Amino acid sequence: MIERRSFDSLGGANHGWLDAKHHFSFADYRDAQRVNWGALRVWNDDTIAPQTGFPPHGHADMEIITYVREGAITHEDSLGNRGRTEAGDVQVMSAGSGVRHSEYNLESTTTRIFQIWILPDRQGDKPSWGAKPFPKDDRSGKFVTLASGMDGDGDALPIRANARVLGATIKAGESLDYGFDHADRYGYLVLAKGSASVNGVALSSRDGAAIHGETTIRITATEDTEIVLVDAPALN
């Protein structure tokens, strides 16, 4: 089963400095049919104005992955971490027993991010943060694992969930396959840009595809396309 979730169908709110679109129920957006997808709880498509951002706030027991699409995001937290993550790169915060952090666009241009929350396999661990560059040229025509808690993904940023976050770029007219270990895995794929079909289901830029019961998907690009994919387990 592959269900297209068009960008136009997403919930969200425009706060002026922040234009937020929500693939799943979040903040004031409520949709009983879009609460989570397996252990994937949140996928926000955020556009952040220059010199603005999220002031300090708290999280606990959540794996929070930030994929920067354009611009850069600057992170600071109660653990003493501070870092700037640029377009194409990724940061991960394992909130664990609790952490406070802020995220600001300190740039002179707009920043666009995907922020993805995945429910952890365990709770109460010590919180942590990390970031890593992932050059887009290294993802041309293939998936690169950006963040993962699955065996064999040692080059990725670690998360505390039996899940992985992957990125790829596909040139117009080319195809790329991804195989799930089991048909009971939950996949969620979003086009950061471009257009493509997933097992024949057509997607446009910033559309989502909710995938379940599939062991293999084939993504065929109709124009140069940038993809982010989450492969998540069922809820415990």
TrEMBL record:
CDD domains: cupin_Yhhw_N. Gene3D superfamilies: Jelly Rolls. Residues 150-231 form the Quercetin 2,3-dioxygenase C-terminal cupin domain. It comes from the Bacteria. Pfam families: Pirin (PF02678), Pirin_C_2 (PF17954). Residues 12-118 form the Pirin N-terminal domain. Belongs to the pirin family. This is Pirin family protein. It comes from Comamonas squillarum. The lineage of its organism: Bacteria, Pseudomonadati, Pseudomonadota, Betaproteobacteria, Burkholderiales.
